[in-house]
Amino acid sequence: MKKTNEIKLRFPAKSVNEGFARAAVAAFTSLCDPTVEELSDVKTAVSEAVTNAIVHAYKDRDGQIDVNAAIYEGNLLKIRVKDRGIGIEDVGKAMEPLFTTAGDDRSGLGFTVMQSFSDKLQVRSRPGVGTTVTITKHIKGKETP
Amino acid sequence: MKIKEEEQTLTVYLTGELDHHAAKPMREETDEALLLRRPKTLLLDFSGVSFMDSSGVGFVMGRYKKAAELGCKTAVRGLSQKHERIMRFSGLPQLVEFRKVPVETAVQNHQISGDKK
Question: Chain B within 8 Å of A30 (Cβ-Cβ)?
Answer without folding.
Answer: no
